[in-house]
């Protein structure tokens, strides 16, 4: 561990695996000969150990495993975000039920995800380097004091059994989010109404294998049916489609109506999925019967696409700085000229609902 006089941002690494703690320390902290970008002030083997060391060292950022003995990562995140909030990067397995726990961790206040490799060898773990460093950088830019912690999961919503294919959507709301997005989406999507001939398209910057759990989590909270998008799926009413990790998502015209198109074209703004191609496709296909929303996140993804929706006669909205974990994406959208209103997170769902009603082709003027 380096000295307190070291100016690099301080990190606490929490994992029950000694190998994982060592590799993460090497990636972030480097060595005496080649110092890394960050200063690893301590490591912890479980949640209780983490809580002690958070108070002792006051790290600027924490990397957190979820499956640990004594006190697991979810409980530790809950305590930390309630008592002494700071940015947390979840470093977790991406297989099986672990992905659902990651989504819950993001709701509790964690801001970034890094997926552990399936093969727990030193060489495989070391390949996490660029992803981990990028996630810690983004976490350090986050202001976790801006959004209150969701202490309890919302009540589950019962969805009736589908008896046939829903009609194709005639209105679309497109939503983009990055760092802090899962928490923001959990505020917005469950409050969106059904019954307006509308579908919702969501791009959340997230690693592969986690987006399905995000969709399932949002589905359990919402009257909308929320799914991870499949290539060629029809875009139908009262349904929200989450872009799969590592795939761009667009909406395209087919003989029988709009459908989802997925591809692995090069990343845009360094991310895949990116919101700009989705927004542009929505503008092209739905025009004035579209609206776009840019939520919290770093960078400028979504800014140009939201301008395309606005120029096609649709509406554009951005989350305000005061409620954004990181205001980079909403600010870029405002600067690009595609935003009709900047809104606190708590007002976005109501504004989107009002726009869906106004643009519903079945609503009489």
Structural description of this entry:
This protein is α/β, with parallel strands linked by helices. It is built from twelve helices and 14 strands. It has helices at 18-29, 47-57, 73-83, 98-108, 122-126, 129-141, 181-188, 211-221, 275-286, 303-311, 328-336, 345-359, and strands at residues 10-14, 39-44, 61-64, 88-92, 112-115, 171-177, 198-204, 225-228, 239-242, 248-254, 257-263, 290-294, 315-319, 341-343. A seven-stranded parallel beta sheet has the order 8-9-7-6-12-13-14, with helices on both faces. The protein has a five-stranded parallel beta sheet with strand order 2-1-3-4-5, with helices on both faces. The chain has a two-stranded antiparallel sheet with strand order 10-11. Strand 1, helix 1 (18-29) and strand 2 form a beta-alpha-beta unit. Helix 4 (98-108) packs across helix 8 and helix 10 runs parallel beside helix 11 (328-336). It is elongated, with a radius of gyration of 21 Å.
How much of the residues is beta strand, in percent? 15-25%
Q: What percentage of residues falls in helices of 4 or more residues?
A: 25-40%
Terminal Cα span? 67 Å
Order of helices and strands: EHEHEHEHEHHEHEHEEEEHEHEHEH
Q: How would you sum up the global shape? A: elongated
* Strand arrangement, major sheet: 8-9-7-6-12-13-14
Number of strands: 14
Summarize the biggest pleated sheet.
7 strands, parallel
Mean pLDDT across residues: 90
Radius of gyration computed on alpha carbons: 21 Å
The secondary-structure class comes to alpha/beta
**How many helices does DSSP assign?**
12
Low-pLDDT runs of 5+ residues are: none
List the quaternary state of the chains: single chain
